Amino acid sequence: MTINLIIFFEEHKLQNFFDLISADDNTLFEWYCANIYEYHHKIGGYGYFTQTDPREYSSQYKDHKVVLLHMISDDEICWGDCGVGNFLIRAEDLENLDFAQVIYNYDCS
Questions:
Q1: Which CA distances in Å does 48 have to 35, 85, 98?
Q2: Which single residue of 7, 11, 42, 90 has CA 20 to 30 Å from 83?
Q3: Looking at the domain assignment, is residue 71 inside a domain?
């Protein structure tokens, strides 16, 4: 496992990760946010939700796994009261360029 992780992390970050692996969830989450997860605008990747992932609400959304666009409030853009917007699509719909079933979600902080 260490060999594979070295490819993705600088050695000191990797050691810090192993030091924290048995830490409480908040400490580990803070490390994750600072070292792995990137809070920024993006196309693709993993969506970030300030409240609840809309795919948890209904089984009809569970296959909307591709992030078309993710925008988060920052110094340049402010969504409502500093929220985040996500446009999600099913992989097969994206392959077919069918945007009829895209779901949009806005969460506020």
A1: 15, 9, 24
A2: 90
A3: yes
Strand ranges (E), 1-83: 66-72
Burial status of residue 86 (CB atoms within 10 A of its CB: 0-12, 13-18, 19 or more) = buried
Q: What is the pTM of this model?
A: 0.61
Do 57 and 75 touch, CB atoms closer than 8 A?
no
Two tokens, residue 87: 């446009």
Strand-by-strand arrangement of the 84-89 sheet: 66-72, 84-89, 103-107
10: containing domain: 2-35
Q: Is residue 49 part of a domain?
A: no
Which contiguous run of DSSP H or E holds residue 25? helix 25-35
What is the number of structural domains in the chain? 2
Q: What number of helices (H) and strands (E) belong to the chain?
A: 4, 3
pLDDT tens readout for residues 2-30: 444 444 456 666 666 667 666 676 777 77
Run of H or E including 71 = strand 66-72
